[in-house]
Automatic annotation (TrEMBL):
PANTHER family: RHODANESE-LIKE DOMAIN-CONTAINING PROTEIN 15, CHLOROPLASTIC (PTHR45431). This is Inner membrane protein YgaP. Residues 14-106 form the Rhodanese domain. The chain crosses the membrane at residues 117-136, 142-162. It comes from the Bacteria. The lineage of its organism: Bacteria, Pseudomonadati, Planctomycetota, Planctomycetia, Pirellulales. SMART domains: RHOD (SM00450). Keywords: Membrane, Transmembrane, Transmembrane helix. SUPFAM superfamilies: Rhodanese/Cell cycle control phosphatase.
């Protein structure tokens, strides 16, 4: 898989038309993203659809960015698995882009998705413990269920709670449609 540093990509943007997709959740994209990026969330990424909607030729590289590089690597692999070869991962993601002082678009700030997961999981664990103590011991199963989900997320890198929270209205862009363009 090919990769590129943020400063190199910025230079390419100055010299011509570069197609850059950001695979983060819409709320993350809305709060800050690299100038010129288009949002196509990883959980709804369809490589064939992305290539069908491309502005340029199928032969031109498609650059993929996320927050730090993990989700964009997964997205690049999805493209490769679908038979598309000219896919380039942006090293360091939006964090590196912003730290390098490159142009970003800032919008409405929301609580980061992982912080939402932590608050929700912590609340459910506490609720299960309190209900288990004061109401019925079976409520401790709620805490065990959340703990098992967190262990699964840690082992697989896939978090069901994050996926569900990401689909909540406050984590979506106005107008729906599964992607954001600003």
């Amino acid at each position: 898989m090919k990769s590129i540093e943020v400063t190199q990509l910025s230079e390419l943007q100055k010299n011509g038309d570069v197609e850059l997709i950001d695979v983060r959740m819409p709320s993350e994209f809305r709060s800050v993203h690299a100038a010129g990026a288009r949002n196509v969330p990883l959980d709804s990424l369809d490589p064939r659809s992305v290539f069908a909607d491309r502005n340029g030729s199928i032969d031109q590289p498609l650059y993929v960015i996320c927050q730090g590089g993990n989700r964009s690597t997964k997205a690049c692999q999805k493209f490769v698995d679908a038979g598309f070869e000219n896919i380039v991962n942006v090293e360091g993601g939006t964090t590196a882009w912003d730290k390098a002082g490159l142009p970003v678009v800032r919008g409405k700030q929301t609580m980061p998705l992982m912080q939402q997961v932590q608050l929700t999981a912590g609340s459910l664990v506490l609720l299960g413990a309190v209900l288990g103590y004061f109401v019925h011991p079976y409520f401790i199963g709620l805490s065990a269920f959340v703990g098992a989900g967190l262990m699964f997320a840690g082992a697989t890198g896939t978090c069901g709670m994050a996926s569900m929270l990401g689909k909540m209205p406050w984590n979506q862009c106005a107008g729906g449609g599964g992607s954001c363009s600003v």
